[in-house]
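Q: My collaborator sent me two sequences in one message, no labels, and asked for predicted structures for both. Can we handle them in order? The first one she listed is below.
A: Yes, handling them in the order given. First sequence, followed by its structure tokens:
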Amino acid sequence: MPLQPSPSIRRELLCVDGHTVAADVHLPANDDRPPVVFLHGILASLNLAAELFVDPTSEPWIGLSLPGHHPGVLPPACTAAELDEELFAWLSEAALRQLLGGRPVIATGWSTGGFAALNLAIRHPARVAAVASLAGFASGQRIAGMMRWLVWMAGRPLGRPAIRLGMRLAAVWPRGYSSLLGCLAADARAAARVPAAMISQMHRDFARHDANSLVMALAALWSLDITDRLAEIGVPAWIAGGAADPAVPRAETERIALAIPHATLRVYEQAGHLFFSEWPQYREDFAAWRRSL
């Protein structure tokens, strides 16, 4: 279940070069461990950050929004071409400077957030003490299934209005959103096991997004590629994925782990893209990896 709002979590809206980056901050007093910084997936939200932990109330962590995802905001004149690898990394780094100064973090992300975490480790290595990618990708062109179709459509003038309309319908039609989410599960049985409370929370977050901004973010994914720079990551890396992931193929997860020196690979068999409901023991595995650092 997502962590409910708590006085110990504060929400910050940070201005970075005209962008608004949202952050949920949970930093217990007198805890000097590097906080886990979580970057969510495309079309999702920073509220998933608490799903990483066995006990999120006892951990230092920060959830950061992806560009254009509520409550973050894109600048009025922003284009998809501007949402490149450098900007993804800079928005996170500049937000973390405002929140933490120079304090190092464990950069962690799911799906597009996994790309963003790896990208941050490449471009701002002094910030990142360790990095974890959950169903992340290194190249947007290796996204598969329904997500590949959405990315392709978002990059075409005739496709963008259809994507915007579909997102607006999903925002007001919970069953439509549930079907969209279910396309990321390993199969229909796995999709049916996603907790109803989780779907409701994610749908409420999705309904707050601006459809135009989401289409722009989707269109930007096709050009993102850090494959040739993965070997530059010199910190411990935990690369996890589902063997039956319909959005990020197992081969992409394995390719990333092979390219990063000293990476730890964890593949969850018969599991899809939805780490929070399909990956058995992932919280314990993630905690064990962090203890080993």
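Q: And the one she listed second?
A: Here it is, processed independently of the first:
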Amino acid sequence: MKCLIPLLFASLALLSCKPAGGPANSSSGKPKVALVMKSLANEFFQTMAEGAKKHQAAHAGDYELVVNGIKNETDLAEQVGLVDQMVSQGVQAIVIAPADSKALVTVLKRAKAAGVLIINIDNKLDADTLKQAGLSIPFVGPDNRAGAKAVGEVLAKKLKAGDEVAIIEGVTTAFNGQQRKAGFEDAMNAAGMKIVATQSGQWEMEKANGVAAGILAANPNVKALLCANDNMALGAAAAVQAAGKAGHVQIIGFDNIAALKPLLADGRVLATCDQHGDQLAVFGIEAALKVLKDKTVPGDQQTQVDVITK
């Protein structure tokens, strides 16, 4: 199996495979599915969007697709607004990668009350918050904890017991970020490493760059930086380079985005975890279409993750 990422979206844009708006049932009778993602500045979600659009193009007779996302990882109000907008446009299903595991539950409850099917992908909604809201929303996606543990175990083989390591986690209220942090901790604790710092890079390259620089300055003996996504791994790699520690501090990431491949190839990043971003939305869309067609009760579906090294 398998530098800065260009910001292809300078401002939030609504990208649609079909014209937005229209009644709940189009003249063709095809269901309309909305994909609501997180930051379109993140290559991972650009890849997710492209995968979804290719799937729709190959199944144009089966459904219509509206693809959209927010400007940055923490723009919760904008994502809430997008969900409301999709309901008002009459979609039958929303496949969502929520920016926050709790904050999106209220608007998703409104959407479900309006008769819209909700499928949760990428970042799992908080179970307790769903229960309190009286909601059951299926999750289609990977086991982030197991994936992070697996890539952490690759790192552990390059270190020795007692070595100092640090974790750069994602948005702290995001369930997938929490699970990746826990998976990193599982691997490091099992191998006897010393976790000397854990800080959030909020999933973003520039923020992670600053966090990594601070960790390296405060902890000169750190031997590895465990990053909860590849965007942050890119920022961490730049910080390691700037600190003159290239080759002395190992880095791992999560997502297997294209921009990371040169760093994997030359050793600046040791490993990452591929959750198949180009197919992740497709899995959610296919689950939604099956429920709409068969009128079945949706359930959770675990998808594949793979460790990627040089």
